[in-house]
Amino acid sequence: MTLDKFLNKAISSWMSQDGPDSDIVLSSRIRLARNFKDYYFPTIYSPEQAKKIITEVTEIFNLIRNDHSQIDLLKMDELQPLQKRVLVEKHLISPNLADESSHGAVILTDDEDVSIMINEEDHIRIQCLFPGLQLKDALEKANGIDDLIEEHIHYAFSEKFGYLTSCPTNVGTGLRASVMVHLPGLILTQQMNRIIPAINQLGLVVRGIYGEGSEALGNIFQISNQMTLGKTEEDIVADLTSVVHQIIAQERSAREALIKTSNIQLEDRVYRSYGVLANSRIIESKEAAQCLSDVRLGIDTGYIKSVSKSILNELMILTQPGFLQQYAGGPLRPHERDIRRASLIRERLKLEEVNNG
């Protein structure tokens, strides 16, 4: 079934690839918010209009479909809550689309690097994901898709303000550029509390792993632009890229300082976390995320050579509540999830040791 291929595979094809600065930058994302000219915004449109929008977008993609990019449409009202949760955990849809949009849908490419949400906060949200720091490439791909759609429909656009959106903060370019970064060095050296306000002053925002209102599990943060009006798309991407390069330099410096001044303590932390993951019979998601962060730091700094980073990317998603229950075939109580999470991590690490033995 079409749905199964998106639900049963924890790691998207693009996630298994290395990108620039992938020791620190896990992914780059570009999201473009667009609305149709002749329809009310999703905040006040009718169910009939919502269905028409899905039909129009689907027809457009049927016209531009090609042999190199198989696409599929998933409608939110045809999915179970657990299935939607898995798509959120894979960053293929937003929590808002999963929880609040009864008339929503998503178009996904086979390798899951393109996700087009329909009837979320805006009529269309084009999302492109790349490994490592590749915001410019992600923007180029998103703009290409945007141009194809605009050949067939008229967007809500103002010569004075730019693209019109449901939320005023998105008016202008409608662009949200973001990077997912792993910053254990800055956390362990207690520098993040100083860095976050400095980033905010530059017109950027730092959020948790699933965006606004989410927690920074496993020392993973999202950094994105706040302003979409008064700057070009290229300027927004260039400014964010420049700041991220500075954060990368500071994170690498922090890691070098830890190795120089606290080498044995850092090595002990890494191997203790590996021991917890390899041997625990019960583990909560927060503890698992922290241990996975420590082990990834151990891989990046050379302490651990028998485990690949791609396995940790996979486990970060596999151990989320939605995926655990998807694999179990139904709902699990929190305690049952903690047992299954520990079992899954043990089995996956043991398989990795066998393959690299």
TrEMBL record:
GO terms for molecular function: ATP binding; creatine kinase activity; protein arginine kinase activity. It is an enzyme of class 2 (transferase). ATP binds at residues 27-31, 91, 125, 176-180, 207-212. A motif (RDXXRA motif of the pArg binding pocket involved in allosteric regulation) lies at residues 337-342. It catalyses: L-arginyl-[protein] + ATP = N(omega)-phospho-L-arginyl-[protein] + ADP + H(+). One of its GO terms (biological process) is phosphocreatine biosynthetic process. Residues 24-254 form the Phosphagen kinase C-terminal domain. Its EC number is 2.7.14.1. Keywords: Allosteric enzyme, ATP-binding, Kinase, Nucleotide-binding, Transferase. One of its GO terms (cellular component) is extracellular space. Belongs to the ATP:guanido phosphotransferase family. This is Protein-arginine kinase. The lineage of its organism: Bacteria, Bacillati, Bacillota, Bacilli, Bacillales. The gene is mcsB.
